[in-house]
Write a structure and sequence with these properties.
A hairpin with a 5-residue loop joins strand 5 and strand 6. The chain has 6 helices and 6 strands, in the order H-E-E-E-H-H-E-E-E-H-H-H. The protein has a 3-stranded antiparallel sheet, covered by helices on one side. A 3-stranded antiparallel sheet has the order 4-5-6, with helices on one face. Helix 2 packs across helix 3 and helix 2 crosses helix 5. Helix content is 47%, strand content 12%. By secondary structure, it is α+β, with helices and mostly antiparallel strands. The chain has 2 domains: 135 residues, no CATH class; 46 residues. The protein is rod-shaped.
Length: 233
Amino acid sequence: MLIHTLIQYLESHRRLVVPQLGTFIVKEPGRSVVFSELLKRDDGVLRGLLRAGGMGELEAAGEIDRFVFEIRHAVEHGSEYRLEGFGVMKPGPNATIAFVYEPQPASESPAQEPAAGKRQPLQPEKVAEAVKTAFTEPRVSTSAKMNPDPSVRGLRYGKPPKNTDAYRYVDRVPRRRADRFIWIAVIAALLAVAAIAFGLWRDAREKQAENEYIELPQAAELPSAASQPEQLE
């Protein structure tokens, strides 16, 4: 259904983005269609077209993811992936994906494509509604990674996420520059208190020495005063 939708949409439009794959661009209608891997950001148009064709949101996202995976898998292994009635995806230079436009001949009878005869053409009003919805809703592609199947939900594949738990110190608060200033202030305060205490202690010692110096002459005068009355007698 996706290839049929792609062909019908490009019959009346200039380009169509396949998310995570690239963009099909019509250079000459009916004659030349090119493919570019530079434009692969999801604009929501293809998903909206599939939803307009009767698919649900998750079903449309899964159909796009499966289409992209099959093409990339074939190209990476050196094979071609044929888009029936539209062209061929094949390996390009420098590990790129090349596209060769090979439209279905108009003279081909419907009997040769029985499955194609059952497909209903896209209605113009549904196409317009799908394009309008794609540009009004948030451009977030819902994929199987974001909404996994309940049977595989919780499973992890690929490389484990990196963490730095092995490089962290246990029970140790990281140092801050402010702590250094606090310690400097505390040390300065202790030095000031020590200087004040030393000054008070020195003043007390000087006062004590001064008192002792004054008391010594008084003690020397007392014996001389006591001996003078005896001499007079």
